[in-house]
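Lab notebook, bench 4. The sequencing result for the construct came back, and we need a structural model before the next group meeting so we can plan mutations. Quick request posted to the team channel:

Model the 3D structure of this chain.
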Amino acid sequence: AAQGPPADGPPAWVKFAFRPAKAALDAITVEYGLYQGRFWLPRSHSATANAQIGFLRVPFTFNEKFTYDEVNGNFTLPMMPPVLRGAALDSLQRDTVVSVPTDSAGVVKAGAPTAGGRSGSRGRVAVSVGVGPGTGAGAPKAPVKDSTVHMTVAKARQCATDSMWTRVETRYQGALRVAYREPCDERKLATSAALPPAMAATETLFDEGSAASLRSMLGMSLQSGFAPQWPKLRTGIDLIRYNRIEGLSLGLGATQALGAGFTVSAVGRLGFADLHANGELSLARSAGPRTVTATVYHRLNAANPEWAGALSFGASLPALLYGRDEGFYYRSYGVELGEERTGTKGAVSYKLFVERQWTAGDSSVARTFSFARALSGRQFQRNILSEPLAITGVAGSWSRVFGENPERSRLTLVTRGEAGTGTYAYARGSADATIARPLGPIAVALTASGGTSTGRIPAQRRWYLGGLRTVRGQVAGLQDGTAYWLTRLEVGTRSRALRPVLFYDAGWAGRREAFAGTAPLRGAGVGLSVLDGLFRIDVARGLSTGARWRTDLYFTAPL
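Done. Here's the predicted structure in token form:
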């Protein structure tokens, strides 16, 4: 008989929608302490890692701390319970049910539990282990060692006469046995006086400085051997985008792990409106929190990547649905060498690049489709006319988050800088600060941002204000210049499922010399955030030049 697709695993469309779905373990550190001048025992474990699912990125750290009330220097240890031996029902053939007598309050009664059939009567606890179809009501019991059954039985027996029970594990193929004494009532673990406060700062619990020092010793040479793997091809929602230059642009990625920390990756894509091919080829080498990358590329770029970037799936949705593309684009090709470092004091990245830049044109009139254009003839906003140039430069950024307690203030800082020389010589820099804090039943977030530049700034390296990511209720690019300032205030409820939000934005862009000569843009409105900002809809009204009502539908909201 023909077999269908395997039942386990998510459907293909789910895999496609949540790509890339990956996680990376950056580093594991173990700190030891010397006790009684004789015994080296672990004092703390730490692991840093990061995960990405679609456009969601989550860095995380796992810390574990050990304290010792006593070290048995005479090597005398309490007697450990013997390893349970015996036969249990074969979990591959039938379910095993262990029934444990209890009193009316649910406390286990004295007496050994018995293996047998299911019991639904009051005063008994049924514990089921094992999966798989049976072989009939009279199927024989096949002997098999089942640690889950043994552990359940052992706990029930000990807890019938004591408030503590001893769990025994074996390691290294049975060469080492370890015993753990645990309370029968596991709720006592959560309220133990040995635990720190729930929101204690990491720095007060763990020696972060020592762990960071250990991670910094992870050199590029501390890698597994060179062992190339088969290349992996992938598609996914992160390789799909839609904008007024390319129209629908589909990408195909390929990655090959070479070993010794090296990885080769390539991405190719084609826009159906401009029929212009783009691609990148990268060679990266990683060692824990540090990654060095060399890339050759031919790209479509967004002029203001500081403001969430237009070349993403989230920004593509409004462009496709109602013809609103707030990005400004130019093309480039060249080569770059960059490095990224992550740690407890923030994330740092920088790159050296040599490239040529030129205008991306505008494909909205010829072949770019949107539902708004099909239904009402609405056209996309015109793209900027970029200046052709050859540039050699350096760019970098630093970001850090202060505050781990979600019940208190949380501060996010981001700084960026870029300088280049060639056809033009210029330098530009910006800084963002966002503070968020819950205040009773509401949550408040305030953002302040500013930037300036010097030298001959080409059109594609200016700042463009107005629109969803800067001043809502205003047309994108209504003000632009070589300097800017921006502030955004959001007030919403603390509900994560559905959160109503009120917001107010104000900003200005232009020449530094005209800082006080032009009125800033302003806008305010109301929004509804779904699933803690994963999805959101805003209705905004401009309060200055170009005042109008605007509705936006987007992903990854700030509050």
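Residues 1-6, 85-149 have pLDDT under 50 and may be disordered.
Will bring this to the meeting.
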